[in-house]
Every structure is written in C-alpha cells, then in structure tokens.
Design a protein that fits this description.
single chain, 3 helices, mainly alpha, 69% helix
C-alpha cells in the first residue's frame, strides 16, 4: 500500500523553498517581459527547474511556473524584437 501525504502532515523545509522558488521564478519571468528577456527569462526557467528537482507538495505550482516562464520568455522576446529593444 502506498502512503499518501495528507495536508495534516507537516511539509519539509525543502518543499517550502521549492514553492517560493517557483513563485519567485514567475515574478522574474514577468519582469522579463519588460527588461532584457534573453537574460532574465532563462534564469527564471532554470530556477523553476531546480524547484522541480526539489519537488514536494507544490508540484502543480512548479509545473505552472515552468509553463508560464517559457510563455513569458517567448512573449518577451517577441515584444523586444518588435519594438527594437535590446535582448541582452
């Protein structure tokens, strides 16, 4: 029988850090829309992938963060090219 983790069980500190890393990466990805997307967005995606490696209770938030950061990278690059803003 596989034991499922219930909400009553305390979370490990690493799980809390993974959730915070995912949320911070989404903020950085949003920041990449307006400021140098080729530098900031890949760093945000890297932070999100590290959070995914930690795993834990925030798996949905982390998966959402990967998708959102990748989308914001694409959108930020498109906006930067369309408006002749620097990529780096």
């Amino acid at each position: 029988m596989i034991a499922r983790e219930t909400p009553d069980q305390p979370q490990r500190p690493a799980e809390a850090v993974a959730g915070l890393m995912a949320a911070a990466a989404m903020f950085a990805g949003a920041w990449a829309l307006v400021e140098r997307p080729a530098r900031i967005a890949p760093a945000a995606i890297l932070v999100t992938l590290v959070a995914a490696g930690i795993g834990g209770r925030h798996a949905r938030l982390i998966a959402l963060s990967v998708a959102v950061c990748a989308f914001w990278w694409f959108l930020g690059m498109t906006i930067a090219v369309a408006t002749d803003q620097p990529l780096w």
